[in-house]
Design brief:
This protein is α+β, with helices and mostly antiparallel strands. Helices cover 23% and strands 39% of the residues. It is built from three helices and twelve strands, in the order H-E-E-E-E-H-E-E-E-E-E-E-E-E-H.
Length: 194
């Protein structure tokens, strides 16, 4: 726990008053609006973000050139090696549901995978924990091929405001990347980035 002495509090108060005076704001002006491309961030004490318009969930179908059993085993291996939090694992329906916090994958920023809007500090996804539900399902496609269906819903929990939740949309990069890892593993080449 950090404790401030009276001189430190006085300096902090003086710096805050100076910053307000130099910016031309007063204590009564608590709302500022900033528009950046198609996102409007409204500051009212803490930051609230209006996310980009569009669906909050994303579905995709991807063809893998391997039989159903091989693709299923590859999907299990990829999810395990990436340490994705498994909420449901059903071999009868060929479904794995990843439910929980998205870890950093392939050394990339969270905003590479999901779009949660932008605030004054940049991409909200990069400043947040990303909670998601990602359903992966293998379906036979005939002739030794398999379709991997994906469905993703995500939301951000900004690190600076643990009670806030911001809906996110997929950037349509995570799902194809995961399917590519599954396909490489199924074909015996091993997944990249694992």
């Amino acid at each position: 726990m950090v404790r401030f002495t009276r001189p430190a509090v006085a300096v902090l108060t003086l710096l805050t008053a100076t910053a307000c005076a130099s910016s031309g704001t007063t204590d009564n002006e608590s709302t500022h609006r900033v528009q950046q491309s198609d996102v409007i961030a409204q500051l009212v004490g803490n930051t609230e973000v209006t996310p980009r318009s569009g669906p909050e969930s994303r579905e995709s179908r991807n063809l893998v050139a391997a039989d159903l059993a091989t693709t299923w085993r590859a999907m299990e291996r990829v999810v395990s090696e990436l340490k994705l939090p498994v909420g449901r694992h059903d071999g009868n329906t060929g479904t794995i549901e990843v439910r929980g916090r998205l870890p950093r994958l392939d050394g990339r920023r969270m905003s590479d995978w999901v779009d949660c809007g932008i605030d004054l500090n940049g991409a909200v996804a990069d400043q947040s924990y990303i909670d998601m539900v990602l359903t992966l399902q293998v379906v036979p496609a005939g002739e030794g091929q398999t379709v991997v269906d994906t469905h993703m819903i995500a939301q951000a929990q900004p690190r600076r405001n643990a009670r806030a939740r911001v809906p996110c949309t997929s950037r349509t990069t995570l799902e194809p990347w995961l399917v590519e890892q599954i396909a490489r593993t199924a074909l015996g080449g091993g997944a990249s980035g694992l």
